[in-house]
Amino acid sequence: MSVLAFIDQSEGQVKKGAYEALSYAVKLASQLGTTAEAVVLGKLTDDIAALGKYGVKKIYHVADEQLNHLDAQVFADVIAQVARAAGAKIIVLSNNSDGKAIAPGLSVKLKAGLVSGAVALPDTGNGFTVKKSVFSGKAFAHVAIKTDIKIIALNPNSFSITEAGGGNAEVSAFAAAVNTPKVKVTAVNKVKGDVPLGEAEVVVSGGRGLKGPENWGMIEELAKLLGAATACSRPVADTHWRPHHEHVGQTGLAIAPNLYIAIGISGAIQHLAGVNRSKTIVVINKDPEAPFFKAADYGIVGDAFEVVPGIIEEVKKLKGVA
Amino acid sequence: MKILVCISKSPDTTAKIAFTDNNTKFATDGVQWIINPYDEWYALVKAIEIKEKDPSAVIHLVTVGGADVEPVIRKALALGGDEAIRINADTPDSYYVACQIAETAKQGSYDLVLAGKETIDHNSASIGGMLAELLELPYVSLATKLELNGNTVLITREIEGGEESCEVNTPVVVSCQKGMAEARIPNMRGIMAARTKPLKVVEPVAADSFTGIVSFELPPAKAGVKLIPADNPAELVRVLHEEAKVI
Prior knowledge:
The complex is a heterodimer of chains A (322) and B (247).
Chain A: E1 2-7, E2 9-10, E3 13-14, H1 16-32, E4 36-41, E5 58-62, H2 72-86, E6 88-94, H3 97-110, E7 113-118, E8 129-134, E9 139-145, E10 150-154, E11 170-173, E12 184-190, E13 202-206, H4 217-226, E14 229-232, H5 234-238, E15 259-263, H6 269-275, E16 280-285, H7 292-295, E17 298-301, H8 304-319
Parallel strand pairs in A: 1-4, 1-6, 4-5, 5-11, 6-10, 7-10, 13-14, 13-15, 15-16, 16-17
Antiparallel strand pairs in A: 2-3, 8-9
Helix pairs in contact in A: 2-3, 4-8
Chain B: E1 2-6, E2 9-11, E3 19-20, E4 25-26, E5 33-35, H1 37-53, E6 58-64, H2 70-79, E7 83-87, H3 94-108, E8 112-116, H4 127-135, E9 139-149, E10 152-159, E11 162-169, E12 172-176, H5 188-196, E13 199-202, E14 211-217, E15 226-227, H6 233-243
Parallel strand pairs in B: 1-6, 1-8, 6-7, 7-13, 8-12, 9-12
Antiparallel strand pairs in B: 2-5, 3-4, 9-10, 10-11
Helix pairs in contact in B: 2-5, 3-4
C-alpha cells in the first residue's frame, strides 16, 4: 500500500513540481505508516539515485527513449503499469503542465479517484479527504476520494520541498510495454535563463499603470535582481504589450509564489483570483482606492515610475550588487 | 471534419463566492451563469474559426446538466455551432461527466474533440484527459495554437517556461487555453439563428463517481494592508527581508 510519486522531467532535468510531489508523497507515506516510491520516465541527465535525499527508497525507471517527450496517453499507460506492479494505492503528481495532461487519463485507467489542484496533505482520520483550490483560488474544497486507488495532483508552489536526510535511492529498471506515441513532439522552445512563471517563488507583475510596453525595463530589472519571473494583467496581454503566457488571473495562469509584487495593477476580482494564493502580496499603485490594496500585505501609494527605481536601488544594496 | 466542443456553465467571473448549507453548497442566489470562458473563448471559437475556413465542417456542442443550463448552451449556439446535445444529468464529479460525454462522442465519431483547459469553478482540468482515455484517443492539453493540415493537427502547448510543438493525427482530444482564438461576442443574426438550432436532450448512461465534495472553505481574510510611505523604499525592502522573509 505504498505511495508512488511521478517524477516529471523536461529535457532530462527534474521539474520543480516533481520535487514537490516527491516531498508530498514522502510526508503522506509517513502519515500512513507506509513507504514512498517514485517513477521516472525517459532519459534523465539528473542523477536519479540522488533523489533518495528527499526520503524515497526505491525509484522505478523506464528508460525507453519514446518517453523522452510527453504523450499523455502513453505516459498514463506506463505509470499505470508501474503502479500496479508496485502495488501503489496512492499516486502523487504535480498539477503542472505534464501532470494536468497525464492524471485524468491515469484516473480512468486505474479507476482511481483524482483530486487535482491539491494544496495540503489529505485528512486520513475518517476516510480520505483532500483540500484543493477551487473557484480559481477564491475558495477551497475538501474532496473525498471514494475509490481504493487514489490520485493526487498537487498544485505548484503549494508544498515545500524538504530533504529527509536519506542516502541514495535504489534505482530499479522497469520493463514496461511502451506503446508507440501518437503525439510527436517536433520542437521545445524554452525561454533560456528565465524563471518559469508557474514555478517562480517571486513574481514581479505590471499592469496598465505602466502606460506602455516600453516601460517594462524596470519590471524586468527588479525581477532579475530578485530571481523573479515577470507577469502581467489581462489588459496588458490583450493589447500585446506583453506575451499571453505572462497573463496571470482567472483566465490566465493561477500562481502561488511566496512574493507577488503588483505594479500599476488595480486588482480586478478576476486578477485577484489568479494571485490570491500568493503568500505575500505587495501592491504599488498611485490610486489609494485601488481594490488591490484590500488584498495586499504591504502597499505603497505612489507613482510606479518614482517608487520602483527606489526599490531597485534598495534591493541592489541588500543583495550587494553594485 | 466533425468537431465536438464540450461546454460547461460556470459562475460569472465577478460572482461573489459564498457557500450555504453548512458550507456544503455554492450559494447560487444572484449568480449569473456564463459559458465557462475556456470552453467559449478558446475551444468553441477555435471550432468556429475552423468552420469559417472549411464550411463543410460540422460543429456539435455537448453539455451535461439540467434544464437550467439551456440558456448557456443557447448562447454558445449563438456564437456558432450546428447543433447541441444536453445530457440531462447532475454533475457529481469529473469522471461521471466524462463518461457521459464519452457516450455522446462515441456515437458521433468526431475527428476533433475540443474542451477548455479547465472550468473556472472546479479547476479540475480533468474532462479532456478522462474523455481521451475513455475514447482511447491521444490527448494534448493546454493548447495555445492549433492548425489543421489534412488529417494532421499541429498543436502548440504550454509547458513550464515555454512551449512545445507537436503533431498528431485525428481523431484527437485537445484542451484549449488562451492564445487559441480571439474572444468574440454573438451577433444578432447568431442569436436569432440559435433559437431554431437543434438542441437534443439525451438521458445519461449509468456511470460511477470517484470523488465527492464534502465541504467548501473560504480563505482566511487578510490582516489588512500595511502601508509604507512612497519615499521610503528601504522600509519596504526591509520588511520583505526581515518580517515576511520572502527576499
